[in-house]
Amino acid sequence: MFKEAIEAAKLIKNAFDTAEKLKDDIDRLKELGESNMKAMELAQIAINLQNLVFSLQRNLWTLETNHRSLEDKIRQYETFEVEKDKYAPHQCASGAVVYRPIQPIHDAEGNVIVHYLCANCYEQHKKSILQPGEIVDSHRTLKCHCCSSVVLYERIECLVETIGSRHAIDWSDY
Ligand SMILES: [Zn+2]
């Protein structure tokens, strides 16, 4: 009987010990759960911060690019301010308006350099010298390689006559 009582007491103690251990385990699990949640929260915050840093880097890069482009524009405006007073509007025979130098400009050998500026680019504070282009509608053209404008410069009379007479011959054959 006494032995049985000791055994029962042992069982009860074991049960208590087991229950105590189980409680410890549950608490530990809870702690782990909480710390895992914290770790996840921290990881999320780290990701958010990383995204913020990337976004700020992108903004900084855009600002730097804009800043450089504005500096270039200011430099271009300043250069143009010096140049623009040397030119005045000029109407070509075709009626198109370009800008040409007020005073003749010479090359190293003293020859006059005949050149015109694109009116479209001039309005945008850009100096763009027009270059000879293709023949369009029996006109010599000047082309702006900056804005792709094409200016009808002058009519080619003899070419028109040649084409006209060629047509006349062609038609007379019929
Ligand atoms: Zn132009």
Quick take:
60% of the residues lie in helices and 13% in strands.
Structure in words:
By secondary structure, the chain is an alpha+beta fold. It folds into 2 domains: 1-84; 86-172, no CATH class. 60% of the residues lie in helices and 13% in strands. It is built from 3 helices and 5 strands, in the order αββαβββα. It has helices at 2-84, 119-123, 157-172, and strands spanning 87-91, 97-101, 131-132, 139-143, 150-155. The strands form 2 sheets. Strands 3-4-5 form a 3-stranded antiparallel beta sheet, with no helix packed on it. The chain has a two-stranded antiparallel sheet with strand order 1-2. The longest helix has 83 residues, at 2-84. The radius of gyration is 44 Å and the shape is rod-shaped. The termini are far apart. Mean pLDDT is 82; it is low at 162-174. It binds zinc ion. Residues 118, 120-121, 128, 144, 146-147, 149 line the site of zinc ion (ZN).
Q: What series of H and E elements makes up the topology? A: HEEHEEEH
Give the low-confidence spans.
162-174
Q: What is the averaged pLDDT score? A: 82
For the terminal residues, how far apart are their CA atoms? 143 Å
* Cofactors, ions, other ligands: zinc ion
DSSP helical segment count: 3
Range of helix content? 55-70%
**What profile does the largest beta sheet have?**
3 strands, antiparallel
- Overall number of structural domains: 2
Outline, from the CA principal axes? Answer: rod-shaped
Structural class based on helices, strands and sheet pairing = alpha+beta
User: How do the strands of the widest beta sheet line up side by side?
Assistant: 3-4-5
Q: In angstroms, what is the radius of gyration?
A: 44 Å
Strand content: 5-15%
Tally of strands: 5
